[in-house]
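Final report, closing paragraph on structural work. Over the funding period we assembled a curated collection of sequence-structure pairs, and we close with a single example.
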Amino acid sequence: MAKSKSVNKILLTSLFFVSAVIFLVIFSWSTSPLYTFYGYDSSIFKTMGKFTADGLIPYKDFFDHKGPVIVFIEWLGFGLTKNNYTLLLLQAIFLTVALYGVYKIANIFLANKKSGLLTLITLPVCSFFMTGQGGNTVEEWILPLLVWSSYFAVRFFAYKEKEHSFKYSILYGVTVAFAAFSRLTNATPVLIFAIIIFIYLLKQKAWKNILKNLLAFTVGVLIITIPILIWFAINGAFSDMIYATFVFNFKYMKSRSLVPDTGRLLRHTARYLLPLIFAVVLQIAMIVKKKDVWLNVSLLIQTVVAVVMQLTSALFPHYLYIWVPTIVITLILAVKDYGVMKWFVRGYALVLLVIFIGTNFLSFKRYNDFLKDTAQAFVERAEDIGTHIPENKKVLSVNNNPYIYLATDIDPCYKYYHTQDLHSSYDSKTKEEWYQLIKSNEADYLVINKLGNYPVYKLIKNTYKMKYQNDRFILLERQ
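Its predicted structure, as stored:
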């Protein structure tokens, strides 16, 4: 019997892994072998992995405001091999772990076959939010932790456990720390579960259990935090990392918080927010029917917070990736109570199907209109520029997407290495440091964006002269 269960686990895991690979090959444009596209944020993350593997110290020798967890993942997935295949493999492993967690959640309420089917539905839900960036996003890497944290929270409520195991809280702490050192707001779903569980335990007056869980949560946070702090302290980049990850990020998020124009808001709602809006309907219906009330209240709060956070941000669809567990768990609960929820379930399934078809049709149309030709041209122009740069020279790409470092296999000679004027617009300290670096004139060559006119160009026009240009870039040589 035990052997049979082990075989079933292996077969199930294999199914999820193969499904994950197929899904990523189709939808993760920035890492799939089917497309020539370095990605948007993905190209930034890849360069972070590349530079670290080349011996540069994150935040000290090169700057970005994503946290050190992402640097480590990209170093492991891309930097060591400098190709997309290992990164795609790492994505597939992470996604497989997440899918198995979804299966475990479904299996709390449903039979194996239904659980497996609902687990696979997770993939089209992921596709709603992945294609906006083309994969390899910060939100994608935290998904397994979000799913398994959700599993323990769901299990606690579903089994009506008298005490909340402190072991669960260790994972909550790990998840929050993982988010803090990548993108802090990605911990929101877990924090909401934790708060509702805390309120539940308060109601039960389970003081000892609350204390145990608070201590366990702290341990989980320290498991991630202590090694990171030690590594950066040893490498002399502690203050640089803290500033980039927390101080700069606070300024960045504050400046990117906005209420967009009505037209864009409506388009974004139609393409990305409808799954969450209809999830609210399901959650309220289940609460009214007194089905898993504590759990559905937790999910309802998550969903409302998700919509509010999205509407007050820059409307990037990949921000919604962290709410995939919320959407799928809501569907699982509704299917579990299908007898009293069948019209809600049928309506929600139809909404998900329509949005899956519509969103991905538009996304793949965008690929055919832009990525297939334009992205290929960008790569070719970047490689062309690289052939005109002599070896062992100090080079910097100015105000470009950093895919140029990937196409030419060069490292930057200044700390601020991509979209510098954009980063400077969020933070006066960063602007001052960037201007001081560019005024030093230590770079032998600068690659500038021919399609834009940036403030920093006024500082370099009298020091650098044009050596070569194509229809995308200009290569400047120091006089």
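Residues 55 and 335 are 51 Å apart (CA to CA). The mean pLDDT is 90. We thank the funder for supporting this effort.
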